[in-house]
Amino acid sequence: MAMAMAMALDLALAMAMALDLALDLDLALAMALAMALAMAMAMALDLALAMAMAMAMALALAMALAMAMANMITLNLPWPPSLNRLYRTVNGRVLISKEGRQWRQRAAYCIPASARKRLDSRLKMSIHAYPPDNRRRDLDNLLKICCDLMQECDVYVDDSLIDDLHIRRGQVVEDGQIDVTIWEIADMRPLIRGKSWTGGARAGAGHLS
């Protein structure tokens, strides 16, 4: 009994870590409920059924994550200039500066043709920002810069498709770097919910963390 409980706890921990990487709260809730059921069955000494449930959950999660990763777009972009240097005002009009154009050319070069899919489904985006130094910076300034670049480079049709948006600050690295990951939300849900996904995420799902 103790060994079975330890195995169930290890499985729960592994799933929780995978769900944290997946950044999908609906999937996390569904899996958490299933894990709670498996734990309850284990405590009721129905170990065979508990282990069968655990194996089924692990398989469903692995398949869902594999589907998501198959269509995952991961990009490594150069650190952009500040907003004050990225744009300039001429005769009352806001235009991209020469430095801004140079950065966009370098960043566009980092987006391969395989990533220019013109996605038109509901999306989630995760941004990891690794600044070039420890100066104070507002992370939200990077959001529009990255979203606009993805649209201009045909990664997706329009940034209004993004329902789930995360940005995190990482450690300082030489010259700075931005890592962008984009998923289609529909990829991770049909296997878990047992039905097709035809709509976008709930309103207000996007947030910063």
Question: In a few lines, what is going on in this structure?
Answer:
46% of the residues lie in helices and 18% in strands. The chain has 209 residues and is an alpha+beta fold.
Percent range of helical residues: 40-55%
- The name of the CATH architecture of the largest domain is 2-Layer Sandwich
Q: List the strand order in the largest sheet.
A: 1-6-4-5
User: Number of DSSP strands?
Assistant: 6
Q: What is the name of the CATH superfamily of the largest domain?
A: Holliday junction resolvase RusA
What is the count of distinct domains? 2
Give a quick account of the main beta sheet: strands, pairing sense, barrel closure. 4 strands, mixed
Order of helices and strands: HHHEHEEHEHEEH
Q: What's the overall geometry?
A: elongated
Specify Rg, calculated over alpha carbons.
21 Å
- What percent strand? 15-25%
* SS field, number of helical segments: 7
- Top-tier CATH class of the largest domain: Alpha Beta
Low-pLDDT ranges:
187-209
What name does the CATH topology of the largest domain carry?
A: 60s Ribosomal Protein L30, Chain: A
Distance between the termini: 39 Å
Structural class of the helix and strand makeup? alpha+beta
